[in-house]
Structure formats: C-alpha cells, structure tokens
Specification:
This protein is α/β, with parallel strands linked by helices. Helix content is 47%, strand content 18%. The chain is globular, with a radius of gyration of 23 Å. It binds GDP-alpha-D-glucose (GDG). GDP-alpha-D-glucose binds next to helix 2, strand 13, strand 14, helix 14 and helix 15.
Length: 499
C-alpha cells in the first residue's frame, strides 16, 4: 500500500540532486484580508486538494498564480512564502498577473475555450485571438518564474492542467537539464470535438514537449493519441502508449487521481469534526430528520447541479411521504464568476432552489439548504459524516474528488454514494449507485433507494468503496507518475551507455 512515507522514500532515493517543482495556476494556500486581519485559506479546488499532501510529503517548490488579496503582504523579495502556514513543509513561489493577463489567459482562453472544449456538457467554447495571445504570454511568464526556481540545476518539473499547454517547451528552452511531466485534470475529448479549436496544432505540439503526459483514464489517453494521430505529424504507438514527434518521445499514461485517505479518515474521526457535527446539527435542526442528503461542488455547469435539484423535486413529488423527514444540504462555492455562463448558472440555482423550496415548503420545513460560500475543511468533513447519501451528478468530470472524500470520511462504514457514470471516479467506485444525471426519474429513484436501503447493504457497499479508495490513494497516484517518469529517464541513460 502506498503511504506518504513510501512516497518520501521514492523521492529521496530516485530524485537525487534534482529539484522538484510543481506548477499550477491555482495556489494551494491564499492569503486574504478579513477586516484588518490576514487569513490563510485553501481554495475549493480538486487539483490543490490532491497535490498539497504530496508536496507536504516531498517538499520542493510549488509555483502558482498569487491570487489572494493579501498574497503580496506575506511573501519575501523572491515572492516566496513557506506553507502550510502553521507547519511549513514546502515553498510556494507566487507569480503575479495583471488583471488583463488574468482576463485573457485564465477567464478567456483556459476557461471559456479549453474547459468547455474538453467537457461534453453542451456549453459552447468561445475562441478569441487576444485570449490565446494572453494565454501564451502568461505561459512564458510562468516559464521565466520556473527557470528562476531551477537556477541552472537539474530539475523535475510537474506541470498541472490545461492552463499550461505551452509551458514544457518554454521551460526546456530555458533549462535544458529538466524533465517535465504534465497531468491533465479534465477529460480529453474525442478528436471530432477537439478539431474545432483554432490553435489545436499549437496545443498538441506544446503538450508533446513533455516527457510524460498523464490523464485520469485510459479512455482520455486514447482520445489524446487519436487526436494527435489525425491532427499533426507524429508517430503514435498505441501499444506502448508513446508518441514520437521531431525525434523526441512522450509517454502517455492513465493515472487516476485520488485523495489522502489516511489523513481524511483520521481527521474525520477527530474531536474537531465531532464538535462541528454537533454545531451543524443544532444550527440546522438536523435531529428532526431521518436522513440528510449532501452535494458539495465548485459551482460549475459541468457538475450537473440543476439536474440534481430537479431530481430532488421529482423525488418529493413521487414520494411525498418523505417530506419533512429529509433535508438536502448543498454546499456550492461560486467560481469563475467573471464568466457569463457561470453568472447565469449562479442565478439559475438561486431561482431553482427558491422554486423547489416554495413548492414543497410546509410547517417551517423546506427540502434544500443552500450553503453558498466557501466552508472550512472541518465543516465539509462533518457534513460528509452527517449525510445518509452524497449525490455527485456531474455531466462530465475528469475524476471528481468529492466522491472519494466522502468515502474516506466514512469510517463508520455507513452512507451511500450516488454517482454519475460520466465521472472518472465511476470507473473505480463501482459500489456506488451509478445513475445518469440526465434522467431525472432515475436520479429520483436512486434517492429513494438510498433512503430505504438496509443498514447491512449500506455497510457492505461502503466497506468495498473504502477498500478501493484506501488502496488507490493520492500517494499511489504520485508514486506511479514519478516512477513512470524516472524509469523513462533511466532507460534513456541505459541506451546511451550501450555500445
Ligand atoms: C478538477 C477536475 C478532478 C468544494 N467546496 C469546498 C471545498 N471543495 C473542494 C472539495 C474537493 C474540491 O473542492 C473539488 O474537487 P473536484 O474533483 O470535484 O473538482 P474540480 O475543482 O473541478 O477539479 C476534477 C480534479 O481536478 C483533480 O484532478 O477530480 O474532475 O474537474 O476537494 O472538497 N473545499 C473547502 N470548502 C468548500 O466549501 N475547503
């Protein structure tokens, strides 16, 4: 079983004198002003939630956009701050972006073009030349920051996600002694869907600057290879999962991401979470209910939140006997709020929740409690433990870590996961109730099944789910990525030594 200690050992044995640097757009900790005080927050992001424990285990430097309004107040001259603040384990290097850069690169190209392009959720991508130019310029800015961190040494750079398709080549031009791996946290679409991107060739070429390219699923890796095969000049080896372009090789591999099972499980049974469960029970009068349903999401049109709410509405119409005996708590953290489609979704959710609550409201009861702001981790863990079921209804999702966090938090071996088959997580979590979110009736039926399932069956399913998440944890993910990359390098050295 992979643990934080194995991973540390792998890194210290194998990485030798190379520097270890992670690059992502989102930073793992941001500093914000609350009144006169500076507070440190962890963002609502699957990527940072997954990688923070890895960095805590292996140290190194994390390069990311400094987006908190107090970020500049706590860094040194090199824009460095050590994190986590109370028990520093690694270095965070912040990169500063202007409003215009953020607008074109992040809101524009990354999130209005690439995000909808890669998720089949029927939101049309917007392609804009100025956004693309800003995106490339910001990739250059990050490459400069990475080069400063490398400082002429040997390094292993681990790039995250769709914000940086141009980065590996830019880094290698500046620092020849580096190896790069990139992990794509979202789905890769089929080649027909990808073809509409006006800068498709540049994106594919840029990604092939990496030594290793990771996706959550074999299916995403196959889609990528197929897109390259049809889109640009390259030799694609489907058996060895390897692409050669311009004499250089890129390994393409599936690595399903996960959570820090041991840490989540330990935290979830701790005294702070128990206290928080009591506070929430009192605050929302939860003792009145036989069961609580839960949704936790960054507000995004890919997460299928309206579909979930319609299903609750349908469930209560079909099974009015559950009125007043059940409540659904939805945690929804607004994200990317400068983009029109996200603003529209926020408005739609407000209206929909108001309508559904109005329709079923009676004697002071209403079915949906909407917590529309960022919650501390302890609150999330307490909610995971209080829920009879968690409902993940994504229309398309690379993995979905909420599903795995819910399972990790349930060391009481109770609780049911209702999970969309269009998440990466559905490939592993087959003991969940797998339900198509586009079918409101099926989802309503699954809610009913969750509320009426026997305690024995709940336990059997949860035990198997926990076994899977315990074994396929975040340290295994990181260990597999690093082993694939390091064995690749080793092979090259071996070849050079052959006569
Ligand atoms: C991308 C891919 C892939 C949510 N609300 C709060 C909060 N969260 C945390 C959850 C979870 C994370 O945000 C969301 O993770 P997901 O995996 O669901 O989603 P994305 O952000 O879309 O992530 C996804 C992931 O990358 C990793 O590869 O799984 O498919 O889209 O960790 O707990 N955290 C806190 N307060 C909240 O209110 N503290």
């Amino acid at each position: 079983m992979w643990t934080s200690d194995n991973l540390k050992k792998l890194i210290s044995d194998q990485l030798g004198d190379r520097r270890f640097i992670i690059v992502s757009n989102r930073e793992p900790y941001l500093h914000v002003l609350q009144g006169d005080e500076i507070r440190c927050q962890q963002p609502a992001s699957g990527l940072t939630a997954a990688l923070d424990p890895v960095m805590q285990a292996c140290g190194g430097t994390w390069v990311a956009h400094g987006s908190g309004d107090a970020d500049r107040m706590v860094v040194d001259e090199q824009a460095h701050v050590r994190v986590p603040p109370h028990d520093p384990k690694y270095l965070l290097r912040r990169v500063w972006l202007t409003k215009e850069e953020e607008d074109g690169y992040y809101y524009g190209f990354a999130n209005e073009a690439l995000w909808p392009l890669c998720h089949i959720a029927y939101t049309r991508p917007t392609f804009n030349e100025a956004d693309w130019q800003a995106y490339v310029a910001v990739n250059r800015k990050f490459a400069d920051a990475v080069a400063e961190e490398v400082g002429g040494q040997k390094a292993f750079i681990f790039i995250q996600d769709y914000h940086f398709t141009q980065l590996s080549r830019l880094i290698k031009a500046r620092c020849p002694n580096t190896m790069t791996a990139q992990f794509w946290h979202i789905p890769w679409p089929n080649r027909e869907a990808f073809r509409i991107c006006p800068w498709g060739e540049e994106i594919l070429d840029g990604l092939l600057g990496n030594d290793l390219l990771g996706f959550h699923l074999q299916h995403h890796a196959q889609n990528f290879m197929d897109t390259v095969d049809r889109g640009i000049e390259a030799k694609v080896d489907y058996e060895q999962l390897r692409i050669t372009r311009g004499g250089r090789q890129t390994l393409v591999r599936p690595f399903p991401i996960s959570v820090d099972f041991a840490r989540s499980a330990e935290e979830a049974r701790g005294a702070d979470v128990a206290k928080e469960m009591q506070r929430l029970t009192q605050l929302f009068g939860l003792k009145r209910y036989e069961a609580i349903g839960l949704g936790v999401d960054r507000i995004d049109y890919t997460k299928g939140i309206p579909e979930r709410l319609h299903a609750i509405d349908r469930f209560l119409q079909r099974h009015p006997e559950h009125a007043k005996r059940f409540v659904f708590i939805q945690v929804g953290v607004p994200s990317r709020v400068h983009i029109g489609s996200y603003q529209a979704l926020n408005d739609r959710l407000d209206t929909l929740i108001e309508e559904i609550n109005w329709r079923h409201r009676s004697d002071g009861w209403q079915p949906i409690v909407y917590l529309k702001e960022h919650q501390p981790r302890t609150t999330l863990l307490a909610l995971y433990r209080l829920a009879r079921f968690a409902l993940v209804s994504s229309l398309h999702d690379g993995m979905n870590l909420v599903a795995k966090e819910f399972v990790a938090a349930r060391d009481d071996e109770d609780g049911i996961l209702i999970l969309s088959p269009f998440t990466g997580a559905a490939r592993e979590l087959t003991d969940a109730l797998l339900v198509n979110p586009y079918a409101a009736d099926h989802l309503a039926q699954a809610i009913h099944q969750a509320l009426t399932m026997s305690a024995d069956e709940r336990r059997r399913r949860m035990q198997r789910l926990r076994q899977t998440v315990r074994e396929y944890n975040i340290y295994r993910w990181a260990g597999k990525v690093l082993s694939a990359l390091l064995s690749f390098e080793f092979k090259d050295e071996l070849l050079e030594r052959l006569p």
